[in-house]
Design a protein that fits this description.
By secondary structure, the protein is of the alpha/beta class. About 45% of the residues lie in helices and about 20% in strands. It has 16 helices and 14 strands. A six-stranded mixed beta sheet has the order 1-2-10-7-8-9, with helices on both faces. The chain has a four-stranded parallel beta sheet with strand order 5-4-3-6, with helices on both faces. A four-stranded antiparallel beta sheet has the order 12-13-11-14. Strand 3, helix 5 and strand 4 form a beta-alpha-beta unit. The longest helix has 17 residues. The chain is globular.
Length: about 400
């Protein structure tokens, strides 16, 4: 593909952005994954932007944008709106460049993200309960004060900054065949795809780019089908970092030409991926950052040659992580929930516990009540949470209970 066929920054502009970004951004590790390689049928590498300063790739685009502000613009300060990673990237970049920053965040933002943004010196204002309200407030603030609004994805400088990640990946794995990465508004994938496609064209080769969205916030499949950025009605998703209802204009223009495929994954898929990264790679990754791994686990991408998977961020509230790990265990059938109706007489609870023990499973939580809505006057309702080793073990536990005359219901 000739260098100038893509919208947005040229390869030379991305290379210039790399010089700027290198002043603050770390060169993050590129780790091989034997487990994912076996699943995919080809070598898989993990690009660990979850280990980047501020916990995500966002520092790249934010710093590249702020570093190019004029003296007058710097004096007026900057403003941004974000529920997390963009906020931290802008706050950090502003601190490094000596620029005053105001960040609007939703009222329910995770405490670690709020504290991190404030720790970088930004003035944080909480407004509304969704990202849309802080975005409107930030635009109004820029209009009334003259502060420079720093968009999260839809700006050439931001795209070029994110594109530096693509150049860095080529340094670490020169013969990349495929890159898989998450998509929200499109800043990351448009920058990386632009850098990789232009560099590959220059070198006389090709690179395949695959984007991954959360099923409940998948604006790009609809937009690509319509041929223009299209706003969707989003449903709740654990992948809040890529929950964007409408693609950026510039990002869409790049993606429609430079991205080869966009797939979607469910919250359960993402929870399983987060768990796999914890167990197999010993990496803490936020749900949005695990989306690309989820695409491999679900079999939506297969045998794509030497593949790089981008782990875009690691900013996750420990309380949220606890819930997601539980969900991931359940999705992997390693955390079984059962409900049984038992005769209301002594020894029944002990008998059920013994049967589960004989099946080599472990009971972690029990609720034993006479007040279940479906219980007869002579019955009690038993709810159990059980640790298992996977689908085959689950079937063994259920079969053991049924052989003993019980009728367990699963996944209530």
């Amino acid at each position: 593909m000739p260098e100038k066929t893509l919208a947005g920054p040229t390869l030379a502009e991305i290379e210039a952005a790399r010089e700027r970004v290198s002043r603050v951004a770390e060169v993050t590790p590129m780790e091989s994954s034997r487990y994912l390689s076996e699943l995919l049928g080809s070598p898989v590498y993990l690009k660990c932007e979850n280990l980047q300063r501020t916990g995500s790739y966002k520092i790249r685009g934010a710093y590249n944008r702020l570093a190019q502000l004029s003296a007058d613009e710097r004096a007026r300060g900057v403003v941004a709106a974000s529920a997390g990673n963009h906020a931290q990237g802008v706050a950090f970049a502003a601190r490094e460049l000596g620029i005053a920053a105001t960040i609007f965040m939703p009222v329910g933002v995770a405490l670690p993200k709020l504290q991190a943004t404030r720790s970088y010196g930004a003035d944080v204002i909480l407004r509304g309960h969704t990202v849309d309200e802080p975005l409107r407030a930030a635009a109004e603030f820029a209009e009334s004060t003259g502060a420079v609004l720093i968009p999260p994805f839809d700006h050439p400088d931001v795209v070029a900054g994110q594109g530096t990640l693509g150049l860095e990946m080529l340094d670490q794995v020169a013969d990349i065949d495929t890159v898989i990465m998450p998509i929200g508004g499109g800043g990351l994938i448009s920058g990386v795809a632009s850098a990789l496609k232009q560099a590959a064209s220059r070198d006389g080769r090709t690179v395949r780019i695959i984007g991954v969205q959360a099923t409940n916030a998948a604006a790009y499949p609809v937009s690509l089908a319509e041929g223009e950025p299209t706003e969707i009605t989003m449903m709740p998703t654990i992948a809040d970092g890529i929950a964007v209802s409408k693609p950026g204009r510039l990002n869409f223009d790049i993606i429609k030409d430079a991205v080869d495929e966009v797939v979607t994954v469910t919250d359960d898929d993402i929870a399983r991926a987060l768990l796999v990264l914890l167990e197999r790679a010993k990496l803490v990754v936020e749900p949005a950052g695990a989306a690309a791994v989820a695409a491999i686990l679900t079999g939506q991408v297969k045998d794509l040659g030497r593949t790089v998977v981008v782990l875009s961020g690691g900013n996750i509230d420990p309380l949220v992580m606890e819930r997601i790990i539980s969900r991931g265990l359940a999705a992997s059938e390693r955390y079984l929930k059962l409900k049984l109706m038992l005769p209301d007489r002594p020894g029944q609870l002990a008998r059920v516990a013994e049967l589960i023990s004989e099946a080599n499973a472990n009971v972690v939580e029990v609720l034993h009540t006479r007040h279940g809505r479906n219980a007869l006057i002579s019955e009690v309702e038993l709810e159990l949470s059980v640790e298992t080793r996977g689908p085959e073990h689950v079937r063994g536990v259920i079969e053991r209970l049924r052989e003993a005359g019980y009728d367990p219901r699963v996944g209530y």
